[in-house]
Please model this.
Amino acid sequence: MIKDNLAWPICWKKSSKPHNFCPGCGHPIILKNLGYVIDELGIQNNTLFGIDIGCSLLAWNFFNVDTIQTHHGRTIPVVTGAKRAKRDAVAIAYLGDGGAYAIGMQHLISARIRNENITVIIVNNANYGMTGGQEAPTTISGQITATTQHGADEYFLQGPELLFNASKTPAYIARGCVDNPIQLKGFIKKAIDFQMQEKGFSFVEILSFCPTNWKTDAKNTLDFMKKLKEFYPVKEFTNIN
Ligand SMILES: Cc1ncc(C[n+]2csc(CCOP(=O)(O)OP(=O)(O)O)c2C)c(N)n1
Ligand code: SF4
Model:
């Protein structure tokens, strides 16, 4: 049991450097809490961690767990295949909003509809982070990105809402935010526990800081996150008892 939230998770790969994310990035907050969950559930030796192309790939040596790095947007089918072959594995797909909701959307919807017994964690930073901050399906109205210099149009995609309504099959679906790591850790734990009980598809979207591409200082990062939450409410969408 972790008592001190400044301590690193036990499953963290101690031989790796701290991390390669930009200062102020939300990914390390998410990964640290995922690490605590892996520790608390005692699943380090059977976790199968799939990471996408995008800033999520910087997590390739974060944990001392079996890790697969896939092509952009293809993490969900790769993890699905691995899980089908190894039923006792705890399969986690970790990818960006671009990878999940644009190029990989067909895989995401299919995994939900087929009720694949995997856990998907999507990092929603409202842009394509790794490639320089282009517009993503989650970019909000008026947002300035590398490809929306005059502000993005009014269309934006709410992933958990879409997935929740895509099937009547019970699933654990939630949206958390890096500004509340305790709640966030709880959502991740419930999602992975759902998979461990073989109940099927579980999904957590996490609103995450990207100060490099948002071009924000600390205060403006928090202000922009507040705005993001108006478009993407933090909540559980689950229809399980
Ligand atoms: C098939 C393919 N298309 C496009 C790319 C270029 N590419 C690399 S990362 C990326 C976007 C990543 O954005 P996102 O998935 O939101 O993750 P983030 O970096 O923001 O965490 C793109 C378009 C690629 N590597 N492969
Ligand atoms: S570009 Fe954004 S998401 Fe990627 S590491 Fe930097 S701050 Fe994080």
Q: What stands out?
A: The chain has eight helices and seven strands. Strands lie at 47-51, 66-69, 90-96, 119-124, 172-177, 202-207, 235-236. Helices lie at 27-41, 75-85, 97-103, 105-113, 159-165, 181-196, 211-214, 218-231. The CA atoms of residues 54 and 130 lie 5 Å apart.
